[in-house]
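Risk register update: the risk of archive-format incompatibility is retired. Evidence:
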Amino acid sequence: MRDTLLLRARLQAALLSGPLAVGGVALACGPGPSGENPVVRSGHNDPGKPAAKPKPGRVAAGAAMADDAAEADDGDAADDEEVRPFAESPYPVRWGLDPYDPDAAEEEGCVNGDWCGPVDAARKFANADAGDEIGCPSRIFYVANNGAKEGDKVYKGLSFDPLMQGRIRRLSTTTAREKEGREDICCYHWFNYCSGRPLLAGAAAVACAEDAVAGLVRDEAQVAPLVEDGAWTGALGGLAEVADPALRRHLAGAWLADARMEHASIAAFARATLELLAVGAPPALVAAAQQAGIDEVEHARRCFAIAQRYAGDAAPERGPGPLPAVAPRRLDLAGLAAATFVEGCVGETIAALTATRAARRCADPQVKAALEQIAADETRHAELAWATVAWAVGSGDPSVAVALREAARALRSAEVALDVEAPFAPEVLAAHGRLDPRAQAATRDDAWREIIGPTLASILA
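Archived output:
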């Protein structure tokens, strides 16, 4: 796909030239030192299947890749190189995983959780097109005005975020039914879709250990509560042209969710700056982390302003309340590399590609302009993350490569396609700068397969 090839070309070119250039990094194609690519391609995790050889010229650095991108057709997956699979189990190292129902599909760093409730309550959030499993809706997602009240005891543990989506946990459901002696219980794992660099609360241990890497994967993102405050809404002209009140509420909620994540990213970069200083990072990386935090201030303001445009004049202005302080983590160089890969190389790369694709079909000029600026900034943030990882690898510490491979394996194997229907048609959401769930999933897979995997393999090689 042209957009993924262009983004990969820019990220890899940034490692070879410019203020964040990292000396001694050979960005060639091919597997890492172990002979294996450090990520698992979704749907190809078959230990017995040999990997196809990459086609010449498909993983090139700098200008050569940009030339490839100019000739590529969107949606042309036939020419994609296969990625060598791992022989290990395809299931992630995660507490509570049902090995018979791989449900750990939450995005890295996104708020997620588990919920059990009566089948009648679950049906208020059901995706009817997905059907039932063991007497329960197999998929759930946020549904506005469905009669469910967030404060009700029956919904304790379930997210009412507009970007919530989840799937049935068969093993947990069976266990809960046996324990309670009733057959109308349904258990789900859910997550709130998010993008960009999350503010992860924990992972204080050195991340080269297997348990610590698993902790980074499942760590919960921190966001500030919403309060009535117009300080962050900025000034965007007029109201969004949306006639359907339900669509207006959905879009306002989705942009508010993005705004809270962008706001938390300010703190994430502030902490990243301190962690870079703690391992003796060069000044270019420290300065770029400081600038990235300033970018996130503007991203948060733009998203809060867009949310207000959709909410309307009658709705109170919403802004972030106090954000709990998170101290710098006690990370050595391997730990910093793993944390940067999880939060930056993955999160920011996907965020950049998501914003690029969302802007492409957006019909609202103000939203489109905001998305284009966010896409440009997130691309620079991804460059910073990859430059940081390459600098850590270039130190020669073998534990860095071990930590990165383990983090990539845990993240990629945790991703299982979550086929969720949006409450509105994809083209309707696209006109307002929102990707529907299927487009989100495709973007994530494209980012891993076309950008994250090849770039990490190049650095480790």
